[in-house]
Amino acid sequence: MSKIPGKTETIENVEFSTFDSSEAAEQVRAIADESVEQSKEVFSKLSSDAETTQKAFESTFEMANTTSNGMLLKTIAALQANAEAYFTHLEALIAVKSPSEFFELQTAFLRKQMERSAEQAKALQALMLRASEDVSKPIKDAFEKALKVREAA
Questions:
Q1: What pLDDT is attached to residue 112?
Q2: Which residues fall within 8 angstroms of residue 106, CB to CB, at 6 or more apart?
Q3: Where's the Phasin domain (predicted)?
Q4: Distance in angstroms (rounded) separating the CA atoms of residues 102 and 34
Q5: Would you say 60 and 139 are in contact if contact means Cβ atoms under 8 Å apart?
Q6: Is 20 in a helix, a strand, or coil?
Q7: Which runs of consecutive H residues, i.e. helices, occur in the chain?
Q8: pLDDT tens digits, one per residue of 116-143
Q9: Of 138, 117, 112, nearest to 53 (Cα)?
Q10: Phi and psi of 139, rounded to 5°?
Q11: For residue 98, what is the DSSP state?
Q12: How far apart are CA 130 and CA 140, in angstroms?
């Protein structure tokens, strides 16, 4: 019989369960093993996702490089065509014999140049639109794939 300090009651025949340390150790070990396995799975998934993202970015940068080179070549071709047109026009102006012929040549040249500039702008705009779609495609595809995987899980 034991007495609780400050109480007048007595406690008799109280049984306390024995603590089995080996069982507790096994439970802790099982929980730790499960946590390690879950961590490995999460790390594997993150590693796979990171690799997929890296490949998507590499594809995007390659596509950006390719499309920027294409746009640069298109711009250089337009500048070259304009320069040739200006030199041809300058040669024609040198051969002018009257002011009316000068104004006629100049007006025709400016009209033709405006048309050419509009065509070049349209071509560059179409190229830039296609380039933006091409550059964003690898990232877009990677995100769509990741979204489908997440929805399926």
A1: 95
A2: 93
A3: 51-142
A4: 90
A5: yes
A6: coil
A7: 21-94, 99-152
A8: 999 999 998 998 888 888 888 887 887 7
A9: 138
A10: -70, -45
A11: S
A12: 15
Measured CA to CA in angstroms, residue 119 lies from 45, 78, 83, 116 at distances of 50, 10, 16, 5
Domain boundaries, the chain: 59-152
Is the separation of the CB atoms in 131 and 75 below 8 Å?
no
- 98 — pLDDT class (breaks 50, 70, 90): very high
Question: Which residue, among 81, 80, 71, has the nearest Cα to 135 in the 3D structure?
Answer: 71
Distance, in Å, from the CA atom of 126 to the CA atom of 112, rounded to the nearest integer, reads: 21
For residue 73, give the amino acid letter.
Answer: L
β-pair partners for 2: 11
- And the tokens for 147? 């979204």
% the chain with pLDDT above 70: 86
Q: Give the residue carrying structure tokens 């998507």.
A: 56
- Dist. CA 139–CA 146, nearest whole Å: 11
- 137: nearest Cα among 28, 62, 27: 62
